[in-house]
Design goal:
Shape: elongated
CATH superfamily of the largest domain: Peptidoglycan recognition protein-like
Distance between the termini: 12 Å
Number of helices: 13
Strand order of the largest sheet: 1-4-3-5-2-13
Radius of gyration: 21 Å
CATH architecture of the largest domain: 3-Layer(aba) Sandwich
Number of domains: 2
Structural class: alpha/beta
Helix content: 25-40%
Strand content: 15-25%
Order of helices and strands: HHHHEEHEHEHEEEEEEHHEEHHEHH
CATH topology of the largest domain: Lysozyme-like
């Protein structure tokens, strides 16, 4: 997938004219051999890869944000729905890197995204955290009711790390490059649940409202019950994925979505929503789409991946039917 802000030989238009002005070369709006030569000279003199392709890192060295050229003051066309809540300096790696992956996680924690980021800022594990955190619903609330009236944090997106930089977020994977060259998204969710006496509990002991419990017919990572991602969380995740794909040129049809495409239209489990048990045809292959995938863990699969696909012991994100249906629309 080609990012519209990434330009190279053969490109033409306004953005090429800006580039040529910044490089003090002939301005004709056509990215030809002379422009490429000027780009390579600039890149090599600024410790960048001299490939003649102008991407995010080259634009930053030039001191120009290409998004500004096409932006206006209309808030409906901006990403003002993302709130900035940055981690302190020293709590992420301030190194600019190109982005080749987007990773989906869930917190295995509570619903408040501010507290999630605050925890990363205060813990002793070092520069650990994700770029974005999407808030959820209090665990004791009825999901259908709160979805109608709106929750304080439900679907709220916070940005903790600037896209250009990175944090450790995958643990021990076979490719350390994936830490550096990825954008990471964390969905607030308690994760896998345990049933005791007809009630459902998180690993930290909180009782989960029945409307927020996803019941799988086939176990995923050894668990049958998970804390459901809310409709607003799934909607926010889609909006964020589309924005990041366009910004960084990451192909959302690669990775987990491609795995899902190999599965027929039958769904992945059964969900209980609003007291009505909605049954979906079970498909073991669908669960496998989210399982550990050695080529992904080694870094050879680019695009959109889940944490569980690159770590055997991780279950984020889990194959919830509503999440899967959303991911299938990204193709």
């Amino acid at each position: 997938m080609q990012n519209k802000y990434v330009i190279k030989q053969g490109t033409s238009g306004d953005l090429v004219e800006v580039l040529q002005e910044l490089l003090n070369t002939r301005v004709d709006g056509v990215f030809g051999p002379m422009t490429k030569k000027a780009v390579i000279k600039f890149q090599t003199s600024n410790s960048l890869v001299g490939d003649g392709v102008v991407g995010p890192m080259t634009w930053r060295k030039l001191g120009f944000n290409p998004e500004e050229l096409f932006a206006d003051t209309d808030i409906t066309t901006s990403a003002s729905w993302i709130q900035q809540y940055p981690l302190p300096d020293g709590e992420y790696v301030k190194q600019e890197t190109p982005k080749e992956w987007i990773f989906l996680h869930h917190t295995a924690g509570r619903h408040n995204p501010y507290r999630c980021i605050d925890h990363w800022a205060k813990d002793q594990r070092g520069r650990v955290g994700t770029h974005y955190v999407i808030g959820g619903v209090p665990h004791s609330e009825d999901l259908e009711s709160i979805s109608k009236k709106g929750g304080e944090h439900d679907g709220l997106i916070l940005q903790a790390i600037p896209d250009a930089y990175w944090g450790y977020h995958l643990g021990a994977v076979k490719s350390r490059t994936m830490h550096r060259n990825s954008i990471s998204i964390e969905i607030c969710s308690a994760g896998p649940l345990e049933e005791r006496g007809g009630k459902f509990y998180s690993w930290f002991g909180t009782e989960i409202h029945p409307s927020q419990v996803a019941r799988l017919e086939t176990a995923y990572k050894g668990k049958m019950y998970y804390h459901k991602y809310s409709p607003k969380q799934i909607e926010a995740t889609k909006a964020l994925l589309l924005l990041l794909s366009d910004k960084h040129g990451i192909d959302l049809s690669e990775g987990v979505v491609k795995m899902i495409q190999h599965v027929n239209k039958s769904a992945y489990g059964s969900m209980n929503t609003g007291g009505t048990n909605i049954k979906w045809k079970n498909n073991v292959d669908a669960i496998k789409s989210f399982e550990y995938w050695p080529p992904a863990s080694s870094g050879s699969v680019k695009g959109l991946l889940t944490h569980g696909q690159v770590r055997q012991g991780k279950s984020d994100v889990f194959p919830q039917i509503e999440l899967i249906e959303m991911l299938k629309t990204l193709v």
